[in-house]
Every structure is written in C-alpha cells, then in structure tokens.
Amino acid sequence: MFTRAITRKPCKALIDGISTGQFCEGTPDYENAVRQHDRYVETLRSLGLDVTDLDADERYPDSCFVEDPAVVMERCAVITNPAKASRNGEKDEIISTIRKFYQDDQIFSIEAPGTMEGGDVMRVGDHFYVGLSDRTNEEGARQFNEIVTKFGYTSSTVPVTEGLHLKDFVIYLENRNMLVTAVMNDMPAFRDFNRFVIDPDELYAINSLNINGTVLVPQDCPKTRKIIEALGYPVIPMDTSEFKKIDGSLTCLSLRF
Ligand code: CIR
C-alpha cells in the first residue's frame, strides 16, 4: 500500500524539456501543464495519499518528472544519477525531501560512472527490474543491486531497445498482470506474468499507474482502458497531454511509497 507521494510542480522552462518525440510532437503549454499537474496531485490525494507537492524549479526543465532522480521503497531510498546534463542536478534537489522520510543510513546514491533514472526501475513485489537504456547503464544497475540487496530486495536487468525508459514499454499492474509492447512480450524475464500486449496506437497507455488498486490511465486510450477494466481494476482517465509532448507519462510525475 502506498501512503505517500512526492511530486514537483512543472516550471515555465518545461517548454525546453528533453523530447525524443516517442509519443507525439509539440511544445508543452505551461498553463495547461499546471492544470493537468494539479489534477494529478488531487487524484493522488483522493486515493488517500499524503502528497508533498514541491515548488517548481526553473533551473531544471524536466524537474516535474520526480520519478527519475530517486527510487524509493519501504526500507531505503536510492538517489539516482540522471544521465542527461540538464537533469543531473535534480538529484541534489530531491535529497532534502527524501531526508524527511528516511534516516541517513537508509539513503544511498548511484555514483559516476554509474547512471540511472527511476523511469527504468520497475518493482514487482520485492524484486526490481532495471532497464538498461540510454539513461541507465550496467554500472548504475550494479550499484543499485548492491544497495537494495542489503535491505532484502533483489534486482535484475532487462534491455530497453524501443525508446526512453523501461516503464514506457512494460508496466506491472499487480496480481501478476503486465501491460507490454510486442518486444517486451517476448522478453524471457516476463515469461511467467499475465501479459497484455498494448496496441501500438496506444503505446503511451502502457505507462498506467496503479495506486492501491485503482489504475490511472491516459485518457483517449479506449483499448487499453478496456483491458484494464476487464481485469477488474477501477480506472481513472487522466489528461497528461502536455507532459506527453516531452516523453512524460503518469508514473514519471511522482515518487510513491
Ligand atoms: C526526459 O527526457 O528525461 C524527460 N523529458 C521525460 C522523463 C520521463 N520520465 C519517466 O518516464 N520516468
């Protein structure tokens, strides 16, 4: 069960956020992004989470994507080492908030040459699948494994070959259910899960977010919504169209613990 979340308000510099255009093209509209973010925070609160919504940080265009500079779990927190220069400083900004919830001996950092971003880390029970991507390297994954195993968790790596982060292409919904791309569907690591291959038209909907049994799903993704509802999860459609333009989706906008 999640009881808390950390979010960060989008900044005006959001228009300079990094984009591969993997979901769509365009420049985010700041005012609309703020509205969409407010609704996201309200939704998490309506689901019972105590949300710490941090102030916008104009120095870092992508800083509303707080999932990337840290990975949090019950027994420890890992400050990552974001690979892109324009995002790397976000790790130094998230740590003061992490310190409010964890003791010093529960907080660890991925150090260079290791790189990692939280979007590449997918939790299944006490196991973490770590995507090896342009943002997370072998050394980052190795350091992460060394840290989490001290606290009774395990981790293993999965190649990310289709775009930005692991969780853009596979997401765990709990109850052994996973949403996957065709590529992730063939990944031996996920063989034993109930896998649902998402229509390529709705790639963005793979990154749906299960908050204590209710699943937030990007709006206008009817095929994916139907799959998730058929599995018995209540669904809340969410409009994150401004974040989508710079590769941001539902999980990226919060740290949950
Ligand atoms: C970036 O390229 O880093 C941002 N524009 C998007 C980050 C999305 N984060 C995530 O999927 N966890």
Summarize the structure.
The chain is an alpha/beta fold and 257 residues long. It has seven helices and 15 strands. It has helices spanning 30-46, 85-88, 90-101, 138-149, 182-185, 222-230, 241-244, and strands at residues 4-8, 50-54, 70-72, 77-79, 107-109, 121-124, 127-132, 154-159, 170-172, 177-180, 194-197, 209-211, 214-218, 235-238, 255-256.
Task: Summarize the helices and strands and which ones pair or pack.
Elements: E1 4-8, H1 30-46, E2 50-54, E3 70-72, E4 77-79, H2 85-88, H3 90-101, E5 107-109, E6 121-124, E7 127-132, H4 138-149, E8 154-159, E9 170-172, E10 177-180, H5 182-185, E11 194-197, E12 209-211, E13 214-218, H6 222-230, E14 235-238, H7 241-244, E15 255-256
Parallel strand pairs: 1-2, 4-5, 7-8, 10-11, 13-14
Antiparallel strand pairs: 1-15, 3-4, 6-7, 9-10, 12-13
The chain binds citrulline.
Q: Mean of the pLDDT scores? A: 98
Percent in helix: 10-25%
User: What hetero molecules are bound to the protein chains?
Assistant: citrulline
From the spread of the alpha carbons, the general shape counts as globular
The succession of helices and strands, N to C, reads EHEEEHHEEEHEEEHEEEHEHE
Q: What's the tally of helices?
A: 7
Catalogue the unreliable spans. Answer: none
> Which class do the helix and strand fractions yield?
alpha/beta
Question: How large a portion of the residues is in β-strands, by DSSP E?
Answer: 15-25%
Strand order of the largest sheet: 2-1-15
Describe the largest sheet.
3 strands, mixed
Span of the ends, CA to CA: 8 Å
Radius of gyration: 17 Å
Got a strand count?
15
